[in-house]
Amino acid sequence: MAERPVTLLDKSDVLAGLFAVWDSIAALLDGLPENRWRAPTPLPGWDVKAVVSHMVGTESFLAGVAAPQPDVDVAALDHVRNDIGAMNECWVRHLGGESGADVLDRFRSVTQDRRAALTLMPDEEWNAVTATPVGPESYGRFMRVRVFDCWMHEQDVRDALARPSSDDELDGNASRLSLDEIAATMGYVVGKRAKAPAGSRVLFELTGPLARSIRVRVNGRAQVVDDFAGEQQTVTIRLDGLQFARLSGGRPMSSARVQDVQLGGDTDVAARIVENLNFVI
After folding, report:
1. Half-sphere exposure (CA, 13 Å, Cβ side) for 40?
2. Residue 107 has pLDDT above 70, yes or no
3. How crowded is the C-beta side of 69, counted as CA atoms within 13 Å?
4. How confident is residue 73, by pLDDT bands cut at 50, 70 and 90?
5. Is 177 exposed, middle or buried (0-12, 13-18, 19+ CB in 10 A)?
């Protein structure tokens, strides 16, 4: 079996997006009253503080800091589904007793350390293959996954605080890179999860500030393609780009944006794809 090609990404572009979303999260939380840190997010069992604690934990892990020992069997918690979820919960529980302001200070501190380390990382290390949430891939691809993860969590926090992203706030590097990362998974979603039949040509038409077209052809295996070489799509799925991102991340749709999903062509296959958009672990 041929090895999967490694994704090589421009370091300055990815880091600009990662640093921008960190800045946006820190600004969003700056001066937040303590009671608002307890606002529930769309993620089961997690409030705003838990989401930020999780991000602190992941960046700490990437900086070489071991997860703290939990006070309970985190694997037994209802919303913990796998080993990664258990590690995340260790940090959530560890920081649960700290004030929101202290958790924000930790977030700023660890992301500042990560900025320095990533900025100094040589290109050969950036492009080297490593273990990532999407399988063996370049470290640069891993960092694009981090952009996606942090950007999705920013939307979670915004949802909890009733401060949804404006169109202008969605127009930036972090949003574009996050949609790039989601788009790269659509072959897996269409082929493996939704089991679209051979010969399918699926067009995702995303609208709003995250507007773009994503095309997937099923020919042996499902792959994202630039075009259908003059052939018409057999399936069309049209929806707001942020709603598409939320469904891909296993979140409910936002009440702040249009929720209409239009299906065209083979609507049975289209509906199956929409039902199986969630690819996150």
Report:
1. 4
2. yes
3. 1
4. low
5. buried
In angstroms, the CA 214 to CA 234 distance is 14
Task: Say whether pLDDT at 102 is over 90.
Answer: yes
Distance in angstroms (rounded) separating the CA atoms of residues 137 and 227: 25
Distance CA 194, CA 188 (A): 9
On the CB side of 18, how many CA atoms lie within 13 Å of its CA?
25
- DSSP category for residue 228: -
Take residue 71 and report the two structure tokens written for it: 């006070």
- Which residues are 216's β-sheet partners? 202, 224
Sign of CA dihedral 28, 29, 33, 34: positive
pLDDT grade for 281, boundaries at 50, 70 and 90 = low
Measured between alpha carbons, how far is residue 136 from residues 9, 13, 27, 59, 117 in Å? 15, 21, 34, 19, 21
Check whether 10 has a pLDDT greater than 50.
Answer: yes
Instruction: Give the closest residue to 165 by CA, choosing from 25, 46, 19.
Output: 25
Reading the block at residue 256, the tokens are: 């702040």
> Token digits for 68?
């703290």
State both tokens at 32: 């937040």
Provide the residue type at 130 as one letter: T
Structural domains in the chain, CATH included, are 11-163 (1.20.120.450), 183-275 (3.30.1050.10)
Instruction: Please report which helix (H) or strand (E) contains residue 93, including its range.
Output: helix 83-94
Please provide the distance, in angstroms rounded to a whole number, between the alpha carbons at the two ends of the chain.
25
Section 135-164 average pLDDT:
97
